[in-house]
Design a protein that fits this description.
Distance between the termini: 23 Å
Structural class: alpha/beta
Number of helices: 14
Order of helices and strands: EHEEHHEHEHEHEEHEHEHEHEHEHHH
Number of strands: 13
Largest sheet: 7 strands, parallel
Shape: globular
Oligomer: single chain
Strand content: 15-25%
């Protein structure tokens, strides 16, 4: 099958990944190619060329002086992203059917969904976030031209007022996220932003009597400066934005992974990655984390309750690492995810084909 994966026009799909969406796209592209599909990825400039990337790098759009002067003018970055997706969708509308059998849209932008009726090739759109107004609008106006998947039951339910989505849980490459030996420190990974709340992970680790390492990109420098840096010390280290191999090593040498969302987590990829390393998870019970973290693989805590998260961490550390890894292999593998997407692609090509049970 010839598959077009549409990714972010903002962040490249390249190591070290900016977030779960970029990591997901790379993992999916490699896994589909390994199964014999021909995959092209449309992504931001700077993406990994091994993914057969076609960059969302159209001639730069520069608004006119008159447009810039308008009081309602959009920021230049917004306009560049809009222009990139507009160019892509028009290109696919003109000749996509000669190149692809299916378009799989993983972006958060409204234009791929809104313009799906223009395509002669079927589109599958994965919902990676809680409801967004511009996507709701696109769904309402697109007339069912895209088939939808959601990364968890929680996310499917959150979108159910707008669209019925099949649940296809995210997956991690369990051949790359290998079991580690564990250790005496905790670990936190992800984007350093307020909604991920790494400062609460530091506080909970201290109350549990654990040192902690934090790894990830700083996407909100003011927040990190204000809330995270004052808490750092010998028992709380910020180790930087790591490539996957270094991240696997760090997570595998941890005794427990803390996951501290202050929003409803659509899936929780960092939890799946940790469990694939055999590292048990202690997480706030927000969003889909209750679906991802099994009782043999971690413990959940009341949202935003640092003391309860410390309790969960102490309990999780004692879990059997082999059982944690087994849970990830059974429930969070990329192979399981790809099989579900292959089924969804086939149904998108032949809409009368019945759906498999989730």
């Amino acid at each position: 099958m010839r598959i077009c994966l549409v990714a972010s026009a903002r962040f490249p799909v390249a190591e070290p990944f900016q977030g779960g969406l970029e990591a997901h796209t790379a993992t999916l592209a490699h896994a589909l190619a390994d199964r014999g599909h021909r995959v092209s990825v449309f992504a931001a400039p700077g993406s990994d060329p091994s993914l057969d990337v076609e960059e969302l790098d159209v001639p730069p759009f520069e608004p006119s002086a008159a447009a810039r002067a308008d009081v309602g003018a959009h920021p230049d970055a917004w306009m560049r992203e809009h222009h990139a997706y507009l160019a892509l969708m028009l290109r696919l509308a003109r000749g996509g059917q000669s190149r692809f059998d299916v378009v799989h849209n993983n972006s958060l932008h409204h234009l791929p969904v809104a313009m799906a009726p223009m395509l002669s090739v079927p589109m599958v759109t994965t919902l990676h976030t809680p409801p967004l107004g511009w996507l709701e609008s696109a769904i309402a106006m697109s007339g069912g031209a895209s088939t939808f998947a959601a990364v968890s039951r929680h996310t499917a339910a959150a979108w159910s007022h707008a669209v019925q989505a099949e649940v296809v849980p995210n997956g991690v490459d369990t051949s790359r996220w290998q079991p580690g030996p564990g250790g005496g420190r905790a670990v936190w990974t992800g984007r350093l932003v307020p909604e991920k709340a790494p400062h609460l992970a530091i506080l909970a680790a201290r109350r549990a009597g654990l040192a902690i390492d934090l790894a990830g990109p700083v996407l909100d420098a003011d927040y990190v400066r204000r809330e995270v840096e004052p808490l750092l010390g010998d028992d709380a280290r910020l180790v930087g934005h790591l490539h996957t191999d270094a991240l696997c090593d760090l997570v595998g040498r941890a005794g427990v992974a803390l996951v501290t969302p202050q929003w409803d987590e659509p899936y929780g990829l960092v939890a799946a990655e940790a469990m694939a390393c055999g590292t048990p998870v202690a997480a706030f019970a927000r969003g889909a984390l209750a679906e991802v973290v099994g009782v043999s693989a971690g413990r959940l805590a009341r949202p935003d309750d640092v003391d309860d998260l410390a309790r969960a961490a102490r309990e999780a550390v004692a879990l059997d690492r082999t059982a944690v890894r087994d849970h990830a292999v059974r429930h969070c593998s990329v192979q399981r995810m790809v099989t579900r997407y292959e089924e969804l692609y086939a149904r998108a090509e032949s809409p009368t084909q019945p759906a498999e049970a989730s």
